[in-house]
Amino acid sequence: MTGLSIAPTTRFLLKRSRLLFASSICFGFVALDVLLAWPHAADFAYFSAIYLHFGDITAALLFGAFGVYWLAKVFDRSPAFTIDSEGIIDSTYFGAYKRVLWGEIKEIKFFKFRSQTSVIVKLIEPEKFLIKRGILMRMLGRMSLALYGSPIVIGPALLGLNAPQLARFISDSAAQYGYELTLPPA
Asked: What is the reported pTM?
């Protein structure tokens, strides 16, 4: 994939069809929960323990919240991923770290799970990067660091790209601004 034209600032929007699909799945789970479990909520023979009812309410609230979040993202026209002279801005999901400077990025890797390949942005000092974040973002970042070796994992499918394309965009942009990033083989 050579000859990519990189603008001074490249912005990617989230794919609306994939967001609608994600929100419909969430709302489908809530509807299924309401249809199957709520009519039996007063029947304690059906719910042998109170924690099942608590789990039912928790699942409905969780999937409902995710559904509302993804549906709101459908109407959000701000860029989900931006590449500019300072680095990258990742806003693909609620746990994204926003601005990552070129000087903080060491290399780019891929992580494949079943049919989905994610782009992992390896940092020079990930702990120093995480210290600047809030407590929830530090906790999420440390989990990602333990699982993937980096707190920054980008799923390119919502951007309408595949992992090698996104990695090439990031690498070519970094080179344009004087930073060399190593890429894994596609």
From this structure: 0.68
